[in-house]
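Anyone have tokens for Multidrug transporter? Sequence:
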Amino acid sequence: MNAPQPRPLEQFFAQFLELQQRMRAATDLDSLGYAIVNEAQALFGYRHAALVIAGKVRNLTGISVIDANAPFVAFVERAARHQPAEGGPRRIDPVELDGQTQADWQTLSAGAVVWLPFNDPQGEPFGGLWIAREQAWSDAELTLLGQLADCQAHAWWALQPKRPWRLRWPRRRLLMIGAAVLAMLFLLPVRQSVLAPAEVVPLDGQVVAAPLDGVIARFVVQPNQPVRSGDVLLRFEDTSLRAQADVAERSLQVAEAELRASSQRAFSDTDASARIDLLAARVEQKRAERDHARELLSRSEVRAERDGIAVFADAQRWTGRPVQTGERLMEIADPNHAQLRIDLAVGDVLAFEPDAEVALFLDSDPLTRHAASLSRQAYEAQPRPGGELAYRFDASFAQAPPRIGLRGTAKLYGPRGPLALYLLRRPLAALRQTVGL
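Reply: yep, here.
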């Protein structure tokens, strides 16, 4: 004989009991949370479910990673706060929620929603389950969901880390002890310090400026390349300068020829004798113009005046660019003579002592500490490229300096003070500026 086929109702309850068994068999909170929001979807046909633990969404149907800033997550957490702490499963009426939550409901969730509270063994709520679908929930389904929620809450509480041991002291005494310990911590003297961006810059370097107005043809040296005195650093476009020098040379030759011709005719021609002084002055003028053109042509090649390394950012940034006389192009510096430049924001300035301790941590090597001491403090704050005001501080290295051009973070140490001042200095300064005290 054929075995009797199970009826649909029997199949439903068999699946329901199997689902409860899988909840209790979960070995960790991640797998349990996934099962809570996904496993019952086939039985009850809901669109989505959200598991809320301690006011925060822990799991969502069909989603493995929760985005805490997602609109649906914020909507569910806000709606869960409006649910009563006591009672069993209940249908949620939109009129119980605030206006913003009701508006989000229309676009983010289904029309029929059930809230299943999760309670610990003492009856205290610690979370709940938000289940939504388009069809209305029947009383029988609500009863089954209540049984399922009890099983899920029990399984979650069984895996929940145990509460820490607490002293069996009165609450008032615990508060007094905590306040005393906190006050002692706030009065603990610590060394004040601030962080600021820093850069290794040359010390007493020679600035190479543009000797004339023109266009840079090319840089002969590369950044951080060693150079010696007399080496060519860069060349300007000299086509027009050579043409000017050639024209000035020819003009001088013409003026000298006119002077010689007038000098020869001066013995017989009184007019030629009278023009000799004028022509001689013109020759001197043309000679000065020629010398000036030659001087400009010689300046088209910029040479190093001392030994060192060429410090500049990028040659391609200057090539083909017109510059004016006196514009800074690069710096020739001794790699063994460098200092630390620190740009400290106005709100971070402390009462630093002369030779205050400074520690540099380079971006390229953040685990190595470079010791330095404060050597100069700017009197006036200057705007930084970002727009904020900052004071410039210079520090000298205790040992061999890092490579010029490296950047990092400098830690400047100030006087000692209570821990409360170290933690609340910025908030107190902002409060004082706000209230005007």
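The longest helix spans residues 239-265.
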